[in-house]
Design goal:
mainly alpha, 2 domains, 3 helices
């Protein structure tokens, strides 16, 4: 009976020490989260702004390119509706090609290695 009391006392003390250790780690964890959040703010926000600027510049370049193509087709004595239809068809073909490339890339991403690593983890 005394042995069971010693074992129970040891379990209670170990559990109390575990809770104490976990509570002691919380401020360290929170400070680490705070540092990471500051680093993200300092790095990601300017990166998002730069991507938005890049997207708007690429869009402006794309519109300018097709405006030049439109004027060139008009200078070839094509009707403006025909010129617009040609530009529309070119954009549609490019959209289909890019979509097919994206779908092929997505289908190749099966994440087999990640699933294999997750299965190997022993909890």
């Amino acid at each position: 009976m005394a042995e069971k009391k010693n074992y129970l006392t040891k379990v209670i003390i170990d559990f109390a020490l575990l809770v104490y250790s976990l509570l002691k780690m919380i401020p360290d964890f929170l400070s680490l989260v705070e540092i990471e959040a500051r680093a993200v703010k300092d790095n990601v926000v300017p990166l998002i702004i730069l991507y938005l600027l890049l997207g708007s510049l690429l869009t402006a370049a794309w519109i300018s390119l097709f405006a030049i193509c439109f004027l060139w087709l008009i200078s070839l004595q094509l009707h403006w509706i025909v010129s617009l239809m040609i530009i529309f068809l070119v954009q549609l073909v490019l959209l289909l090609v890019i979509s097919l490339i994206m779908f092929k890339k997505i289908n190749k991403m099966s994440f087999r290695r990640s699933r294999h690593l997750i299965r190997k983890i022993k909890i």
